[in-house]
Amino acid sequence: MLEIQDLTKRYGKNLAVDHVSFTVPNGKVGILLGPNGAGKSTIIKSIAGLLRFEGGVGIQGISNRELEAKKQFGYVPEIPAMFDALTVREHLEYIHRAYGVSVSEQEIMDLLTRFELEDKQDKLGNELSKGMMQKVSICCALLIRPQVLMLDEPMVGLDPRAIKELKQVILEQREQGVTILISTHMLEMVKELWDVMFVMEKGKIIGQYTKEEAKDQDIEDLFFDITGGDEG
Amino acid sequence: MKSLIYLWKRTMVNRIRKALSKPVTYIYIILGIAYVAMILTGIGSLVMANNWNTPIYLVYALSALVFLSIPSSLLQYAKRKGLLFRQSEVHFLFSAPISPKLILLYEQMKSNMMNLVLTLVVTVLGCTLFGIPVWKMLLYFVLAYVVENVLEAGLVVVLYGNERLKERTVRLLCRAVWLVVAVLVLFAAYMFFTQEASWNVLPLVLDHPFLQCIPIIGWNIAFIRLLILGPTVLNVVCTLLYVVFALLLLVISIRMRCAGDYYEDAMKFADDYQEIMQKKKKGETSGVSIGKKKKYGKAQVEYKGSGAKAIFYRQLLEYKKNKTFIFGIFTLISLALGVGIAIFAYLNHLSASPYRFFIVPGVMAYMVFIFTSYATKWSKELENPYTYLIPDSTIRKVWYATLIEHMRSLVDGCLITIPAAVVLRLTPVQAVLTVLIYVCLQATKLYFNVLSEALLGNILGNFGKQMMRLLGEGIVIMIAVLACVAGTLLVNVEFGFFALILSSVILTGLVAWGGSIAFSKMESLQ
């Protein structure tokens, strides 16, 4: 479970996130929507422990600042940044050591094959395209077998096959009880994935729907109903 | 910890392997060894010539290093700016289950590799040049490196990783460091005016017992003196204080809670640093500072003409939005240079010299040749797809993309020439020709940059391009000087200048024509 309690973040005098609280239950996919500058990235970075903030973030009931919480938390940032001098394979090896997970050779190969990286294993970080970096970033996040997975604009830069594969992975993770939070502008891409939706504007959550509440209503209609026509 | 060791090890192995696979690395290694040998020989000669080859002079040199390094480290760590985190580290280290303190130590150790090399060099120099017994220098190498690293690691964790220090406390700490520096400077000034008004005051200051009593900085000096010169009551007491302080910091840093509050500052610094590095890679060095965005005003420009001319007018619009228009730090340097030449000429009565006509062009050629070129708007044109899409000839694109640079050269040339021309009593014609020489020299440099971009791209990196530019410029300057000498000897000075300009223009035109390949397709940059 991912719990955000009264999260507030200021950059100097500018209030970027204003007392935001929400919860994504176990085995559910939450999506965070909102126009540019709504505060989504600030929330994502706060959850990932990259920003100082007021309030609390709980990962499986543990504060996100604790190492125990980090062990259960996979993060795919919007802009992946690879180690220049590490190969794709070495990135995975590093993650495997940092998180202390036991992963078999076959599991690593399966993951690489799934994202069409098996022939890129020996490529260095600075030799990868943006799309390939994104795939490596996703593989690293999946390798740790997270209980909570957070993806910030994960489809950007991916080719159609990788997008399809990622959607499949997200559904499989949900089936396995993983809590997932996705921040995205691409409503079309998360149509069949979401369980709970949070819409943000000017640093606040202005609307929240569960799939059950929405019934058959289209995600775009819901979003534009809440935001009054602004594009996400 | 194992993951960080793995990360460091693999990074080093891959970097070395990659470097060794490039032929240019071997050239760099040879040049590097030659450079280090030259520096060390230079230091050796300097030390021997001045009879500085005794242990005390090594102590003075190390004391000076302490003065330079410790206050700046303290200030940087207190402001959470001393460590260079990369974006990849933000991505893969900060969200990983690795102790934030360990991450700090990892960064500190990485940046400290240079310190290890420096300590090693000092050890070797101590044994060979300053006549200090090997065992003493080995002791220095081990103890100085260990204790200084413990202290530095403690400072990094306590200052960078501290989550209790309020902004006000950090400000006070920074002021305290500045206060210590100010006290040291005042003390040196006091000694200068009361004891010895010459460079000889330095040993008096560095030997003074007061110096060793200054917390951290002075204690570190006492520690060095104890290891190299032997014990005195003062240096033993201050060394004890130094070691106790280092251990105390170590204990505090172990016990202190650090959950990663510094990540936010480190992440911002990593982003800013990345931006700076990208700009520097492209050669943009003027007006680039970490964390500061350039501000632009409002402006308008009327496009007169079409095709490649649009590049010129767009650049003009951008410059008009600049607070200082086309002027910058180089404008001031040019003015200072002009005034400097004028003062030098006045003091040395050079206005009567038969070679006075060649003083300003000589200085100009030297400056143009030695100074690395600052990247300007023309180089950015090569990154813009529209530069290639504009339906016009490549030579016109090169001309209009660099036209403003020629105008800047004209202004800079005037600033260098006019003050000097007044003192050197040059005729208006000679002054105008001198300005034109500067414009030609700068144009040569600029077009060699274009040509090196076109021919080398990323093959040999900035160093290779720089070498090609220097070689090309050297050849052009040599031919132009020969033309000038011939013209002066055969007709007169004005004709010599004219021959210089004419030959430069022809050669520069050829280089520009060659460089226009860079504007033919974007691929040439890859």
From TrEMBL, chain A:
Highest rank taxon of the organism: Bacteria
Start and end residues of each ABC transporter domain: 2-227
Short name of any one Pfam family annotated for the protein: ABC_tran
UniProt xrefs under InterPro entries: AAA+_ATPase, ABC_transporter-like_ATP-bd, ABC_transporter-like_CS, ABC_Transporter_VariousFunc, P-loop_NTPase
SUPFAM superfamilies tied to this protein: P-loop containing nucleoside triphosphate hydrolases
Gene Ontology MF term list: ATP binding; ATP hydrolysis activity
Keyword set includes Nucleotide-binding: yes
Keyword field contains Nucleotide-binding: yes
Alphabetic keyword roster: ATP-binding, Nucleotide-binding, Transport
Record's protein name: ABC transporter ATP-binding protein
Provenance organism: Diplocloster agilis
Source organism phylogeny: Bacteria, Bacillati, Bacillota, Clostridia, Lachnospirales
UniProtKB/TrEMBL annotation, chain B:
Keyword tags: Membrane, Transmembrane, Transmembrane helix
Name by which UniProt lists this protein: ABC exporter domain-containing protein
Membrane spanning stretches: 25-49, 55-78, 113-132, 138-160, 172-193, 233-252, 324-347, 353-375, 470-491, 497-519
Organism placement in taxonomy: Bacteria, Bacillati, Bacillota, Clostridia, Lachnospirales
Pfam families for the chain: ABC_export
InterPro entries: Put_ABC_export
